[in-house]
Amino acid sequence: xxxxxxxxxxxxxxxxxxxxxxxxxxxxxxxxxxxxxxxxxxxxxxxxxxxxxxxxxxxxxxxxxxxxxxxxxxxxxxxxxxxxxxxxxxxxxxxxxxxxxxxxxxxxxxxxxxxxxxxxxxxxxxxxxxxxxxxxxxxxxxxxxxxxxxxxxxxxxxxxxxxxxxxxxxxxxxxxxxxxxxxxxxxxxxxxxxxxxxxxxxxxxxxxxxxxxxxxxxxxxxxxxxxxxxxxxxxxxxxxxxxxxxxxxxxxxxxxxxxxxxxxxxxxxxxxxxxxxxxxxxxxxxxxxxxxxxxxxxxxxxxxxxxxxxxxxxxxxxxxxxxxxxxxxxxxxxxxxxxxxxxxxxxxxxxxxxxxxxxxxxxxxxxxxxxxxxxxxxxxxxxxxxxxxxxxxxxxxxxxxxxxxxxxxxxxxxxxxxxxxxxxxxxxxxxxxxxxxxxxxxxxxxxxxxxxxxxxx
Length: 457
Ligand SMILES: Cc1cc2nc3c(=O)[nH]c(=O)nc-3n(C[C@H](O)[C@H](O)[C@H](O)COP(=O)(O)OP(=O)(O)OC[C@H]3O[C@@H](n4cnc5c(N)ncnc54)[C@H](O)[C@@H]3O)c2cc1C
Known about the structure:
By secondary structure, the protein is α+β, with helices and mostly antiparallel strands. It has 17 helices and 18 strands. The model has no long low-confidence stretch (mean pLDDT about 95).
């Protein structure tokens, strides 16, 4: 059956790049989720047009062959990881920036465009595309839409969903629909654009997106605050939020991550600190300095041991890079499982305490960093490659962590998604009735269940 499918695919789309070689399929097996054991793709298709994606889905429906939509494969929930017997559709060759529409402050792109390339292209026109995952140099817009990616400046500008105005989507049966468009206001019917964003390739395949742009903000003013305890850093973040201060970056790194980055790049960071906060303002003129002065006061009141300002734009870039290096620095220590828990922002100190507790109780090495201003943290558990006992302890720690986050009124995933890796905890967080509604939506759009099976619901 599957070889008939591949033969018909090759006949119907002779120009389609179709990888069937074992080594090629193997290289599309995983995303960046180390603890998830994925399947091996049946084959990998690299379409170049919406028509090709639609034709693939018509044949997949006819032959009931499952498909896995894939961007750059940087996901951290197994969303684009392979499924045995499924065709992986990698959208990386559909990577054109179709139009920068200055008049409507939006840009039309194909899904394979890399986030950093889009940012650079619109910046050249004096414009700004806000969502900036720490992976922005290598993740794609399609994947960002698939996961509703967050990032460092989401604390001020919102997540990917807030930047998506419209989509072109290929449905499971190969029909192509358009949702939204260039209107900033549009309430015609159900909010399909918002539904597709974050659905991790389980409801349709995004083949084009219209994204909101903003005028480029002024250069940022940047500071680092070091704290003697994690609790003091969490208290400072909660105070900044309570006082209505709106920095464009409010990121945290703990002692373990500071040391991991410093060991790697020898930056002279204060390794005696229990945590640091990276705080930035992009308000115009003196307002940026005023905003940082207010944030500085919150840090001082919470007990900051030292506070430093970046003297130049280059120094500010360098401090941002410190934060962006956090995960790769942890990966140098062993197998690294990055988690993604969140809590209401006032409860950040409690979330930090929970992370410390579960790591200690289960005796696992853990470094925590993340988007503190969003109440979203990435505790990253590390173990040696062949230490199966440590891996099992990390699994137990994660399960405790998820339950504790839910008990705080938080979430098991702020931005990486349920994917394949966190499925058992969806129902614990949202309840059986809500999952039933999600399943009904899935069944309506994908009655044969061929779109990214085993993911999300
Ligand atoms: C070092 C590092 C730092 C990271 N930092 C962040 C961060 O700050 N914020 C954050 O949110 N994430 C972060 N991530 C996770 C990851 O980069 C994001 O989830 C990103 O959005 C994934 O994009 P991708 O192109 O790699 O997509 P993939 O991993 O290939 O796919 C992600 C999901 O989207 C679906 N998908 C992909 N393309 C399409 C499409 N065209 N149509 C429909 N569905 C599609 C896939 O099926 C999958 O479910 C980080 C990852 C790493 C390794």
